[in-house]
Amino acid sequence: MAFGFKSVADRGINRNTSKNQWRGIGTTARMVSGGFSFDDGEQVLVSVQKPLGILLEQDDVDDENVLGPVIVAEVDPSGSAGRAGVQAGDILVAIQNASVEQQSLEYAMDFLQQTPRVVNLRFIRPSS
Fold first, then answer.
1. What is the DSSP string of 51-67?
2. Global pTM?
3. Where do the PDZ domain residues begin and end (predicted)?
4. Which of 5, 13, 77, 106 has a CA-to-CA distance to 61 between 20 and 30 Å?
5. Paired sense of beta strands 118-124 and 91-95, if any
6. What is the pLDDT, as a whole number, of residue 62?
7. Mean pLDDT, 10 residues at a time, over the chain (128 residues)?
8. Is 16 helix (H, G, I), strand (E, B) or coil?
9. Do residues 53 and 82 make contact, with C-beta atoms less than 8 angstroms apart?
């Protein structure tokens, strides 16, 4: 296996009859026209094309020395992130596999502007 990638079979994911949906134990991944989405119940990973169609904001924290998380405030359902399953309230934790936790909104936005057209994002979805 080159570069540490595993085949779908190596990961224990079986392709079911749906052309656009792959399932494994406790995980769901789906190919959508806007990108790729993977949800393991704890984190949501998406690979989407720009423009993303999301509005980000930084949550306020009582301690002025601590940065709050960067949160998805709004999602355009027809945008690539919306089609990949990103939801309002999702917490952005990584861009291109680099953590943006404890970073400012400006840092995250600058980072996003420097990424290629297809960007990988990792979110935590708070329990409802």
1. S--EEEEEPP-SSTTSP
2. 0.70
3. 52-127
4. 77
5. antiparallel
6. 75
7. 34 37 38 62 91 94 85 96 95 96 96 96 89
8. coil
9. yes
- Of 83, 77, 71, nearest in space to 123 by CA: 71
Cα–Cα distance, 44 to 96 (Å, whole number): 13
The H or E element spanning position 46 is strand 43-49
Alpha-carbon distance 16 to 10, whole Å? 16
Q: What does the alpha-carbon distance between residue 18 and residue 1 come to, in Å, rounded to a whole number?
A: 27
Asked if 70 contacts 60 with a C-beta cutoff of 8 angstroms, the reply is: no
Q: Report the distance separating Cα 8 and Cα 120, nearest Å.
A: 19
Q: Is 81 helix (H, G, I), strand (E, B) or coil?
A: helix
Structure confidence at residue 5 (pLDDT): 33
Name residue 42's amino acid: E
pLDDT at res. 128 = 62
What are 56's two structure tokens? 């980000």
